[in-house]
Protein: L-histidine N(Alpha)-methyltransferase
Organism: Phaeocystidibacter marisrubri
Amino acid sequence: MNKTTALNGFAKDIHQGLTSTPKTLPSKYFYDSDGDKLFQSIMSMPEYYLTDCEFEIFNHQASAILDAIAPHKRPFNLIELGAGDGSKTRVLLDHFQKAGVDFTYCPVDISPDILNELEEKLREELPNIQVELLAGDYFELLNNKIGKFEGRNVFLFLGSTIGNYSYKKSIEFLQKLRAGMRGEDQLLMGADLKKDPSIILSAYNDAHGITKEFNFNLLRRINRELDADFNEANWMHWPTYNPETGEARSYLVSRVKQTVHMKAIDEVYHFKAWEEVHTEISRKFGLDDLQQLANETGFEVVDHFFDCKHYFVDTLWKPTNHS
């Protein structure tokens, strides 16, 4: 009996991806507890320049960022979408606290484990900061909770997470976010900039194979949670970067003709030899791309904050005033 209709979101999404053409696996499911740890390892790899660039921006330009988001030290809620371990954000939090500005930090993440760890670290390092944890889906929280917050909201969407969406999905995401924002709210968003293609590709093809493990961990999760029989030896991780489109993509490629059985939903999936399964996209942007994205989603670009190499930008936007 086909049980897919009665399944949770994870099983449905995996089934949908593996029955689509071409096959896909949704990257949001990389982040179980093992995946969270692997991603922390990725962020500390020398090849993964994005983290260092954003750290540099926050360490050197926290004052300028604060002046832009809180002129005259106006109070605000700092709402971080996809907070993760909050390591970069703590640089800003420390600076904002020392500057004497009144704010509440509201980290949002789909992973309650990550949020609890973040809260523990904040208690140790920055015990005087007001924190409100928000676990769950961004837009459900935006509609049901964040939209009722008093005062101005400044949204953080860091680490070039916007690049993990296709062009169409990024438009949809920003339009939904814009719909939940008020006139004086702002968005500070990280974006990885177009640069030497070899530098970009090496960030997704590291010498120690951590990115490969990050992808393979999803197969392990499917095996464990959906009682599947993916054999890792039959797969290879294949990252690519296309400078024309600005897209870095990751694939799992089937080395052999094979069949995978998922007992939890009583489904069988057939893979041809060298068939690819798309797992992840990371888009890179020019400043003109970001301007176009803002124009199409109801935002106005306020300022850009760059690292010294101009590899990365944290771009500050506000809702367009239509009056």
Remarks:
- The radius of gyration is 20 Å.
- The longest strand covers residues 235-242.
- The longest helix spans residues 49-69.
